[in-house]
């Protein structure tokens, strides 16, 4: 059984007939040849598949695509283009926030989503007082990005890239 599903992927509207068990990650990679989101653990533990779904960061390996009919999906590849990069993409390049690059698209999408959450005043586990707006300390950034793993250990440079972007125009 296939279910008709409409999605907007990186600004392009697509209509697909999908198996209701198919994840958003598999739809992106297997049906749309969009390899920006990476398949790491396929269990929601590494963050390599992070995309922005209607502006919120999600683990696409845990999302059933048909459940998001009509949604707007932005991958790291859709944030900016060569010559017109998103500030977060540029900061990752400027601060060498990657090594092998496998986790980078998920890190970038998560960082953009995280800064949006922060701008909305959402507290994290390390926010000292949830009744006041949090400050973007290094501990806050680390906690908020803790779902995105980097096997190469580029965390210090990722932190610097996120901090620089946050001090500019993050979204």
Automatic annotation (TrEMBL):
The keyword Iron applies. Keywords: 2Fe-2S, Iron, Iron-sulfur, Metal-binding, Oxidoreductase. PROSITE patterns: 2FE2S_FER_1, 2FE2S_FER_2. It comes from the Bacteria. SUPFAM superfamilies: 2Fe-2S ferredoxin-like, CO dehydrogenase ISP C-domain like. InterPro entries: 2Fe-2S-bd, 2Fe-2S-bd_dom_sf, 2Fe-2S_ferredoxin-like_sf, 2Fe-2S_ferredoxin-type, 2Fe2S_fd_BS, Aldehyde_Oxdr_Iron-Sulfur, Beta-grasp_dom_sf. One of its GO terms (molecular function) is metal ion binding. Pfam families: Fer2 (PF00111), Fer2_2 (PF01799). GO terms for cellular component: periplasmic space. CDD domains: fer2 (cd00207). Residues 3-79 form the 2Fe-2S ferredoxin-type domain. PANTHER family: ALDEHYDE OXIDOREDUCTASE IRON-SULFUR-BINDING SUBUNIT PAOA, OXIDOREDUCTASE, IRON-SULPHUR BINDING SUBUNIT-RELATED-RELATED. This is Aldehyde dehydrogenase iron-sulfur subunit. It comes from Paracoccus tegillarcae.
């Amino acid at each position: 059984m296939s279910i008709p599903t409409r999605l907007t992927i990186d600004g392009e509207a697509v209509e697909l007939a999908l198996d209701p068990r198919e994840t958003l990650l598999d739809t992106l990679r297997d049906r749309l040849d969009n390899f920006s989101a990476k398949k790491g653990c396929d269990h929601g533990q590494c963050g390599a598949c992070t995309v922005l779904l209607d502006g919120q960061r999600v683990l696409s390996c845990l999302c059933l695509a048909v459940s998001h009919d009509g949604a707007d999906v932005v991958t790291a590849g859709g944030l900016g283009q060569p010559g017109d990069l998103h500030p977060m993409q540029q900061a990752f390049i400027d601060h060498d926030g990657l090594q092998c690059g496998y986790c980078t698209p998920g890190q970038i999408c998560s960082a953009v989503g995280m800064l949006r959450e922060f701008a909305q005043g959402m507290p994290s586990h390390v926010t000292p007082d949830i009744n006041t707006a949090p400050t973007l300390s290094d501990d806050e950034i680390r906690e908020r990005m803790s779902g995105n793993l980097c096997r190469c250990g580029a965390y210090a440079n990722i932190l610097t890239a996120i901090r620089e972007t946050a001090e500019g125009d993050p979204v």
